[in-house]
Protein backbone atom coordinates (compact mmCIF):
# COMPACT_ATOMS: atom_id res chain seq x y z
CA UNK A 1 0.00 0.00 0.00
CA UNK A 2 1.03 3.60 -0.44
CA UNK A 3 1.13 6.60 1.86
CA UNK A 4 -2.19 8.34 2.52
CA UNK A 5 -3.69 10.91 0.16
CA UNK A 6 -7.40 10.91 1.03
CA UNK A 7 -9.57 9.93 3.95
CA UNK A 8 -13.16 9.69 5.06
CA UNK A 9 -14.54 9.76 8.55
CA UNK A 10 -17.61 8.55 10.38
CA UNK A 11 -17.60 9.98 13.91
CA UNK A 12 -20.46 9.30 16.29
CA UNK A 13 -21.38 9.01 19.94
CA UNK A 14 -22.99 10.98 22.75
CA UNK A 15 -21.99 14.15 24.57
CA UNK A 16 -23.87 14.43 27.89
CA UNK A 17 -26.41 11.97 26.47
CA UNK A 18 -26.98 13.95 23.24
CA UNK A 19 -26.43 11.67 20.25
CA UNK A 20 -24.54 12.95 17.23
CA UNK A 21 -23.43 11.41 13.95
CA UNK A 22 -21.15 13.06 11.39
CA UNK A 23 -19.61 12.00 8.09
CA UNK A 24 -17.09 13.62 5.81
CA UNK A 25 -14.16 13.34 3.40
CA UNK A 26 -10.82 15.05 3.06
CA UNK A 27 -7.30 15.07 1.70
CA UNK A 28 -3.87 15.24 3.27
CA UNK A 29 -0.14 15.34 2.67
CA UNK A 30 2.07 12.84 4.55
CA UNK A 31 5.19 14.86 3.72
CA UNK A 32 4.20 17.99 5.65
CA UNK A 33 1.47 16.62 7.95
CA UNK A 34 -1.32 18.73 6.46
CA UNK A 35 -4.88 17.44 6.31
CA UNK A 36 -8.32 18.88 5.74
CA UNK A 37 -11.80 17.46 6.19
CA UNK A 38 -15.29 18.54 5.15
CA UNK A 39 -17.53 17.09 7.86
CA UNK A 40 -21.31 17.38 8.21
CA UNK A 41 -23.87 16.22 10.74
CA UNK A 42 -26.27 13.52 9.52
CA UNK A 43 -28.70 14.58 12.26
CA UNK A 44 -29.84 17.96 13.57
CA UNK A 45 -27.48 20.75 14.62
CA UNK A 46 -25.10 19.77 17.39
CA UNK A 47 -26.45 20.65 20.87
CA UNK A 48 -22.89 21.28 22.10
CA UNK A 49 -19.77 23.05 20.88
CA UNK A 50 -18.28 21.26 17.85
CA UNK A 51 -14.83 22.34 19.10
CA UNK A 52 -14.98 19.54 21.68
CA UNK A 53 -14.60 17.09 18.77
CA UNK A 54 -11.79 18.94 16.97
CA UNK A 55 -9.01 17.25 18.93
CA UNK A 56 -10.43 13.87 17.92
CA UNK A 57 -11.09 14.80 14.29
CA UNK A 58 -7.95 16.80 13.54
CA UNK A 59 -5.51 14.58 15.43
CA UNK A 60 -7.17 11.28 14.56
CA UNK A 61 -5.28 10.65 11.32
CA UNK A 62 -1.66 10.20 12.39
CA UNK A 63 -1.04 8.40 9.09
CA UNK A 64 -0.32 11.91 7.73
CA UNK A 65 2.22 12.64 10.48
CA UNK A 66 5.75 12.89 9.00
CA UNK A 67 8.76 11.85 11.07
CA UNK A 68 12.17 13.58 11.12
CA UNK A 69 14.64 12.97 8.29
CA UNK A 70 11.93 11.48 6.07
CA UNK A 71 11.60 8.34 8.18
CA UNK A 72 8.34 6.43 7.83
CA UNK A 73 6.32 6.78 11.02
CA UNK A 74 4.88 3.68 12.72
CA UNK A 75 1.43 4.98 11.71
CA UNK A 76 2.43 5.09 8.05
CA UNK A 77 4.17 1.71 8.27
CA UNK A 78 1.00 0.12 9.72
CA UNK A 79 -0.97 1.54 6.79
CA UNK A 80 1.56 0.49 4.15
CA UNK A 81 1.83 -3.12 5.34
CA UNK A 82 -1.92 -3.35 6.01
CA UNK A 83 -1.53 -4.44 9.64
CA UNK A 84 -3.12 -1.29 11.06
CA UNK A 85 -3.57 0.04 14.56
CA UNK A 86 -6.34 1.16 16.90
CA UNK A 87 -6.52 4.29 19.06
CA UNK A 88 -7.86 4.62 22.61
CA UNK A 89 -8.01 8.25 23.79
CA UNK A 90 -9.06 9.81 27.10
CA UNK A 91 -9.51 13.52 27.74
CA UNK A 92 -10.01 14.96 31.22
CA UNK A 93 -11.25 18.54 31.53
CA UNK A 94 -10.73 21.09 34.29
CA UNK A 95 -14.41 20.92 35.34
CA UNK A 96 -14.34 17.12 35.77
CA UNK A 97 -15.87 16.25 32.39
CA UNK A 98 -14.35 13.41 30.37
CA UNK A 99 -14.25 12.35 26.73
CA UNK A 100 -13.26 8.87 25.56
CA UNK A 101 -12.62 7.82 22.00
CA UNK A 102 -11.94 4.60 20.13
CA UNK A 103 -10.71 4.97 16.54
CA UNK A 104 -10.58 2.16 14.00
CA UNK A 105 -9.17 2.35 10.47
CA UNK A 106 -9.42 0.42 7.23
CA UNK A 107 -7.41 1.10 4.08
CA UNK A 108 -8.01 1.04 0.33
CA UNK A 109 -4.74 1.91 -1.40
CA UNK A 110 -3.90 5.49 -0.38
CA UNK A 111 -7.40 6.04 1.09
CA UNK A 112 -8.11 5.82 4.84
CA UNK A 113 -11.54 5.07 6.30
CA UNK A 114 -11.92 6.11 9.92
CA UNK A 115 -14.66 4.94 12.26
CA UNK A 116 -14.46 6.96 15.51
CA UNK A 117 -16.73 6.55 18.52
CA UNK A 118 -16.29 9.55 20.83
CA UNK A 119 -18.39 9.95 23.99
CA UNK A 120 -18.34 12.69 26.61
CA UNK A 121 -19.92 13.01 30.05
CA UNK A 122 -19.98 15.45 32.95
CA UNK A 123 -19.97 18.74 31.04
CA UNK A 124 -21.80 21.38 33.13
CA UNK A 125 -24.96 22.74 31.47
CA UNK A 126 -23.66 26.30 31.93
CA UNK A 127 -20.08 25.45 30.88
CA UNK A 128 -18.35 26.34 27.60
CA UNK A 129 -19.09 23.01 25.89
CA UNK A 130 -22.85 22.86 26.43
CA UNK A 131 -23.32 26.63 25.85
CA UNK A 132 -21.30 26.47 22.59
CA UNK A 133 -18.76 28.99 23.92
CA UNK A 134 -15.56 27.37 22.61
CA UNK A 135 -13.97 29.33 19.75
CA UNK A 136 -10.59 27.72 19.06
CA UNK A 137 -8.06 25.09 20.12
CA UNK A 138 -4.64 26.53 20.92
CA UNK A 139 -1.35 25.15 19.60
CA UNK A 140 -0.37 22.00 21.43
CA UNK A 141 2.78 19.93 21.79
CA UNK A 142 2.24 16.19 22.14
CA UNK A 143 4.88 13.90 23.66
CA UNK A 144 5.01 10.37 22.19
CA UNK A 145 6.85 7.40 23.71
CA UNK A 146 7.01 3.66 22.96
CA UNK A 147 6.42 1.71 26.20
CA UNK A 148 6.58 -1.58 24.27
CA UNK A 149 7.00 -2.76 20.67
CA UNK A 150 3.29 -2.52 19.84
CA UNK A 151 2.27 0.72 21.59
CA UNK A 152 2.75 4.43 21.05
CA UNK A 153 1.58 6.38 24.12
CA UNK A 154 1.10 10.13 23.90
CA UNK A 155 0.21 12.88 26.36
CA UNK A 156 -0.58 16.55 25.99
CA UNK A 157 -2.13 19.44 27.86
CA UNK A 158 -4.55 21.39 25.70
CA UNK A 159 -6.37 24.68 26.05
CA UNK A 160 -9.45 25.84 24.19
CA UNK A 161 -10.24 29.54 23.82
CA UNK A 162 -13.73 30.62 24.93
CA UNK A 163 -15.96 33.56 23.96
CA UNK A 164 -15.17 35.13 27.35
CA UNK A 165 -11.45 35.05 26.52
CA UNK A 166 -10.71 32.50 29.23
CA UNK A 167 -9.06 29.17 28.57
CA UNK A 168 -10.69 25.77 29.04
CA UNK A 169 -8.07 23.14 29.80
CA UNK A 170 -7.81 19.40 29.27
CA UNK A 171 -5.25 16.64 29.62
CA UNK A 172 -5.16 14.08 26.80
CA UNK A 173 -3.77 10.54 27.01
CA UNK A 174 -3.70 8.34 23.93
CA UNK A 175 -2.73 4.70 23.39
CA UNK A 176 -2.06 3.69 19.78
CA UNK A 177 -2.08 -0.11 19.73
CA UNK A 178 -0.43 -1.76 16.72
CA UNK A 179 -1.11 -5.21 15.25
CA UNK A 180 2.59 -5.73 14.40
CA UNK A 181 5.74 -4.68 16.28
CA UNK A 182 7.10 -1.21 15.61
CA UNK A 183 10.45 -1.15 13.79
CA UNK A 184 13.38 -1.41 16.21
CA UNK A 185 15.13 1.68 14.80
CA UNK A 186 11.96 3.70 15.42
CA UNK A 187 11.91 2.64 19.07
CA UNK A 188 15.42 4.08 19.48
CA UNK A 189 14.15 7.54 18.49
CA UNK A 190 12.09 8.55 21.48
CA UNK A 191 10.51 10.56 22.82
CA UNK A 192 8.99 12.26 19.79
CA UNK A 193 7.48 15.73 20.19
CA UNK A 194 4.76 16.87 17.77
CA UNK A 195 3.52 20.46 17.49
CA UNK A 196 -0.02 20.76 16.15
CA UNK A 197 -2.66 23.31 15.29
Automatic annotation (TrEMBL):
Residues making up the signal peptide according to the UniProt record: none
Keyword field: Luminescence, Photoprotein
Taxonomy, superkingdom: Eukaryota
GO terms for biological process, alphabetical: bioluminescence
Gene3D superfamilies on file: Green fluorescent protein (2.40.155.10)
Family: Belongs to the GFP family.
Name by which UniProt lists this protein: Fluorescent protein blFP-X5
Annotated organism of origin: Branchiostoma lanceolatum
Biological classification of the source: Eukaryota, Metazoa, Chordata, Cephalochordata, Leptocardii
